[in-house]
Amino acid sequence: MRILVTNDDGIMAPGLLALRRALMELGDVTVVAPTTPQSAVGHAITLTDPVRVHRVSLGDGTVGWAVEGSPADCVKMALYELMPERPDLVASGINLGANVGINVLYSGTVAAAIEAAFIGLPAMSVSIEPAETVDFDGAARIARRLIDQTIARDPSRPALLNVNVPDLSKGPPKGVKVVPQSLKGWRESWERRTHPRGGTYYWMVGEMRTEEEGAETDVAALADRYVTVTPLRFDLTDHGRLDDVRGWGLRLD
Amino acid sequence: MRILVTNDDGIMAPGLLALRRALMELGDVTVVAPTTPQSAVGHAITLTDPVRVHRVSLGDGTVGWAVEGSPADCVKMALYELMPERPDLVASGINLGANVGINVLYSGTVAAAIEAAFIGLPAMSVSIEPAETVDFDGAARIARRLIDQTIARDPSRPALLNVNVPDLSKGPPKGVKVVPQSLKGWRESWERRTHPRGGTYYWMVGEMRTEEEGAETDVAALADRYVTVTPLRFDLTDHGRLDDVRGWGLRLD
After folding, report:
1. Residues of B in Cβ contact (< 8 Å) with A175
2. Domain spanning B2-181+212-246: which CATH class is it, in words?
3. Which CATH class is domain A2-183+212-246?
4. Among the four residues A146, A176, A241, B230, which has the most C-beta atoms within 10 Å?
């Protein structure tokens, strides 16, 4: 099996190496990741700037590719330029920080998986909650275990799965829950500060809204210490509303 | 009516002013747009850098706000910091270049509208095909006409509409078509070049795949010279697959 591993935390991120290590047991792993951290870049691609690629030694001595671009750029670069053959799977992560709720829209980690799925490949994004000591290897082993169980399923419909792992330093997860993305937003605002040399700047501050008890979402299940699995789609059309809007009889005159 | 106008082509873009002009007839318009062009940034937000905001004179002498950030940052800055009251509508555009097919995923113009919708506001993204002479005012008048017909509909379910306008220099559009996003990707590759001082860099090159005749998608309808309207959603869960994946019995042990 040929596996492409990428991320949005950048080529130096420990989560990337942990994922690479865990997936080496499944086949040939190619690492193609952004040169610099790209958190919250969403599904950015680099259209108007040149993109440079560097062959680099990773922290564990193996070779990888650093791309001066976004996670989605990395997937395109791997597929169309760097990998001699199409991978059988694209894995993105292990991201430091959960990608649940609205974060799914902002996440470069998830965007890399969506990019791969759009091209027709099975893909999984994997993120773990922040902690004082983050167990990336534990999260990578969970990813590997889930890949074992998903890759063989229905090859005519490649899986696009978003996986989130709770803080493992608090003990093992309670299990796996397959749940939808929460549609609650952040409780957010801008924190206004004054620069030492004058002038105002802002920091975005926000925290995920907690779900009501019993809600079956990624936010709720992760808070309850389950590994969450959410099947994603990249068709943004609101199909349920097409006929509704057609009935509006929109006109230009 | 209070209207927020933003874009991803930046505060200096002519399409922004055209949209502002056309929507002034509907109410109070506040312009908050990125300092620099942000095409294809997708749903990026600025979490790890400070964000600065500048009060600026626009090309037509009115006042606007330039935000050193992404289109989604602009929406958050407008709502939580700059506008004393919530807007009744967020309009994003007029983008130079169609946002149909996979471009819907990459587009900062669309991401701004999605951000607004996630917060619960009616939102519309508007884009026009490139041309030698781009009729932004014509596209803005079309946007205004569509807003007239959509805003009043079902306030309990705020509309999130992605609108694309064909090249108007070739004559008026044939009409309006309500169509889903095409799921065809680009035919894409990397063009490899050598820098004058040595070293390799790449340009992303790609063109939208054309649809089969008769296909009812945004790509096909726009090519057929219709104004396209696509209702979007921001729930990325593949709900049709939740039960399927639940049936896989995923386990950690």
Report:
1. 251-252
2. alpha beta
3. alpha beta
4. B230
